[in-house]
Amino acid sequence: MNRAHARRAPLILIAALLCAAVSSTLLHAQSSVFGDTTPRFLDVDQAFSFYTSLDSQNQVSVHWTIAPEYYLYADKFSMRAITADGNSTELPLQLPEGVEHFDEFFGEVTVYYHQLRIILPVSDIETPFTLEIDFQGCAEAGLCYPPTTRQTEIFR
After folding, report:
1. Where in the sequence is the signal peptide annotated (predicted)?
2. Full-prediction pTM beyond 0.85?
């Protein structure tokens, strides 16, 4: 490389970096000025978080926190107790009254917003057991999450 090229190389590098910084700034400014109208959706576990509590020897509760502008379907819940020997028992759900809602995917449905507590009778289940929870929900902005399954261990 001759001396003229050697002197220009750092200038070319600085110019390239400056162009990249300016174009990145302009792109960010354009999305800020015109507003980014693309909806941003939460991960399913952020939109619908839960924890369990052992209320008594005979009852477990699943406590849901539902993000603002999201909802869970009442008819999409199912819960099973899976014991150490692999036996699975469908648990009856005690659901509170929900809200009637017209859903673009399922029509007239009952849904839950904000918070929800589901009570599960477990008197006939040996512990420890795995509680398998199936649920489904949507965002008001139009995203319907696929049916989701989560598991948690229950000990007495």
Report:
1. 1-29
2. no
β-pair partners for 59? 56, 121
d(CA 100, CA 95): 14
Nearest Cα neighbor of 59 from 27, 15, 94 is 94
Query: Residue 130, CB half-sphere, CA atoms under 13 Å: how many?
Result: 12
Query: Residue 7's pLDDT is what?
Result: 56
H helices present in the chain, as ranges: 3-34, 44-47
- 128 upstream amide cis, omega within 30 of 0: yes
98-152 pLDDT, tens digit each: 999 998 888 999 999 999 999 999 998 988 999 999 999 999 998 999 999 999 9
Contact between 110 and 136 under an 8 Å Cβ cutoff? The reply is no
Cβ 143 vs Cβ 39: under 8 Å? yes
